[in-house]
Predict the structure.
Amino acid sequence: MRYLLIICALLFTSLAAHAHSDETHGLSIEKAWARKTSRMVSAAVYLTIKNDTHQLEHLKGASTDIAATTMVHRSQEVGGIMQMDHVDDLPIAPGEVLSFEPGGYHIMLMGLSQPLEEGDVFTVTLEFEKAGKKPVIVEVTGLMGLTEQGL
Ligand SMILES: [Cu+2]
């Protein structure tokens, strides 16, 4: 299996070199959403990243115009207490589908410039090591969120 991956990586590299193909090919971001906020404080963005390339990718950070600070966070329970850690380098393996969901990975927006209202859309730009900057449209849902609606 490891041997196969190495061959794939070599093949992809040589194809990219010959065709000058777009390095963002095969990396997609879907189902980006955030819950509406009742006050102007902070919000969490959830989404799904699919790495359909043959290369290991890394999410290095995120930014948006509507918040003072934007970070990739991971929620986890440590000793019965939920805590959030800043993740400054998140590897995404070739073929991996990585879901950011409540209770796990999220894009944390701190210092919102305005409350998020249901039905609003805004842009968050994800920064990847290989694919570079990828803007994503985020949809603001009700308090139930997108996951619970089964969408
Ligand atoms: Cu957070």
User: Anything to note?
Assistant: Residues 24-141 form a domain with the Immunoglobulin-like fold (CATH 2.60.40.1890). Residues 13-24 have pLDDT under 50 and may be disordered.
